[in-house]
Design goal:
Elements: H1 4-46, E1 65-81, E2 84-85, E3 93-103, E4 108-119, E5 129-142, E6 149-169, E7 174-198, E8 201-216, E9 225-238, H2 256-270
Antiparallel strand pairs: 1-2, 1-3, 1-9, 3-4, 4-5, 5-6, 6-7, 7-8, 8-9
């Protein structure tokens, strides 16, 4: 029969050995778990666009000469003179126009425009008719580029010349005469969107509001009279320079780890 210290030595050594084995297993397993967690957290933080970024698309507007032809319906409103609304003389009619612009950046275009409208007679005004010619200059902002749908909005100013015809004199001997008005469009606001079925040619819808004041009227020197024209219609857009195409990178949208694995697999296959 051994002593008391001899009896407890063997169990103590066994417990110590078991503890050492468990500690070693945990120490070996910890770095792998940490590496897995770190990689997963990195992928979550970087998101689906992690890795090599998709290159920016080519600038498809700077320096381009852009042409548009448009047709629609133009409706005048406002006054010809103090106390004389335009609706007493003429109403809306067909309008035709054209724009030419030069691209300043990926989104902005400096544009010159002009249109001509044939105005019909207002109700109850026999022999009335009208014509309106306007020329303007403005900036166009395009929401996107390189897409099939191209939304845009513009602001500009311009000059307007309107010639209105109506009869004067007695009912027995009416005399038809032309009245020329010169005005300044202080705000020309338009918006629309073009659809490009092929790269250089698009078709779209537009709406335009022109507001201004007549500074010169026949036989009158009173204060300026405000006027407006509202126009809606269709337009054809021409970009003679072919539009570029965006080529996505092969690893775009993949995480760094997946891209690295794919690259390594590719290298192994080549070997």
């Amino acid at each position: 029969m051994g002593s008391r210290s001899t009896r407890w030595t063997a169990p103590a050594l066994g417990v110590a050995a078991a503890g050492w084995v468990l500690s070693a297993n945990q120490a070996l397993a910890q770095p792998a778990d940490q590496r897995t967690t770190t990689a997963a957290e990195e992928d979550e933080e970087l998101g689906p666009e992690a890795g090599t970024k998709r290159p920016a698309g080519p600038d498809e507007r700077s320096g381009h000469v852009l042409l548009q032809a448009r047709a629609g319906y133009s409706q005048p409103f406002g006054s010809l003179a103090a106390g004389q609304p335009v609706s007493e003389r003429v109403s809306g009619g067909l309008a035709f126009g054209a724009n030419i612009g030069i691209g300043l950046s990926r989104d902005a275009v400096l544009e010159a425009s002009g249109s001509y409208a044939l105005l019909s007679a207002a109700g109850g005004c026999n022999g009335c008719s009208g014509q309106s010619l306007d020329l303007g200059l403005g900036l166009v902002y395009h929401v996107a580029q390189g897409l099939a749908i191209d939304p845009w909005i513009s602001y500009g100013v311009g000059y307007r010349r309107a010639v209105l015809t109506w009869s004067e004199g007695s009912a027995a001997s009416p005399a038809t005469s032309d009245h020329v008005f010169h005005g300044l469009d202080v705000a020309r606001i338009a918006l629309g969107a073009d659809f490009y079925p092929v790269s250089p040619l698009g078709v779209g819808l537009f709406a335009e509001l022109d507001a201004g004041t007549y500074l010169s009227r026949p036989g009158e020197s009173s204060r300026a009279a405000p006027y407006g024209f509202f126009q809606v219609g269709l337009r054809l857009a021409l970009d003679p320079v072919p539009r570029g195409t965006r080529t996505p990178h092969a690893s775009a949208g993949m995480s760094r780890r997946i891209a690295a694995q794919a690259s390594g697999a590719g290298g192994t296959a080549h070997r």
